[in-house]
Amino acid sequence: MSSEVWLVVGLGNPGPEYAGHRHNVGYMVNDVLAERMGSGFRAHKTGRADVVEGRLGTPGNPGPRVVLVRPKSYMNTTGGPVQAVAKFYGVEPDHVIAVHDELDIAFGTLRLKKGGGDNGHNGLRSMRSSLGTGDFYRVRAGIGRPPGRQDVADFVLSNYSTVERKELPIQLVEAADAVESLITEGLEKAQSRFNS
């Protein structure tokens, strides 16, 4: 068993009014992972995030230690809580995975990568600023572009459509599977399985 720790940061905004928004898909994926780990989120000692600690892997073959992180701040100030939790557990950016919504990928599609720009995503920008690098992993859950002339901010801060809500559970499970694959098998194998 490895002693290394992975931080899986589900990006989103706290509070029930944001719970079903496209921008909160990271929170939703971490909820699926928490269920698999058999635990609920609890306040972290830093006071800046809710966490679940445990291992992801098959029964009898536990994988590396994983800390699921749900920052208690709004998206544009996510970096501070992430940095605080990473420092607490002694985790370097190369063991941080951000799970987030991605406008430039069609709904129902996933992409995994390491590093890259923030593409206008305030959560990623804040993480990059606080961690001092963008060289962390990303599991990008596609939400597609807004229809017609709808403002991007209004689109990401709105609920999934009725049709999307029927498909959303599948996307959340696939994204959770992608996180597990990334941690246990590495980026290359995870990309070949999940980058569609």
TrEMBL record:
GO cellular component: cytoplasm
Localisation: Cytoplasm
Binding site for tRNA: 18, 74, 76, 122
GO molecular function terms noted in the UniProt entry: peptidyl-tRNA hydrolase activity; tRNA binding
Entry annotation: catalytic residues: 23
Catalysed conversion reaction: an N-acyl-L-alpha-aminoacyl-tRNA + H2O = an N-acyl-L-amino acid + a tRNA + H(+)
A Pfam family reported for this protein in Swiss-Prot or TrEMBL: Pept_tRNA_hydro
Cell division found in the keyword field: no
Keywords for this protein: Cytoplasm, Hydrolase, RNA-binding, tRNA-binding
InterPro entries referenced in this protein's UniProt entry, alphabetically: Pept_tRNA_hydro, Pept_tRNA_hydro_CS, Pept_tRNA_hydro_sf
EC number per UniProt: 3.1.1.29
UniProt key word Cell division: no
Site positions (Stabilizes the basic form of H active site to accept a proton): 101
A Gene Ontology biological process term: protein quality control for misfolded or incompletely synthesized proteins
Residues of the site described as Discriminates between blocked and unblocked aminoacyl-tRNA: 13
UniProt-listed NCBIfam families: pth (TIGR00447)
Subunit architecture: Monomer.
HAMAP family: Pept_tRNA_hydro_bact (MF_00083)
Stated family: Belongs to the PTH family.
Its biological purpose: Hydrolyzes ribosome-free peptidyl-tRNAs (with 1 or more amino acids incorporated), which drop off the ribosome during protein synthesis, or as a result of ribosome stalling.
Name of the featured protein: Peptidyl-tRNA hydrolase
Organism the protein comes from: Nocardioides daphniae
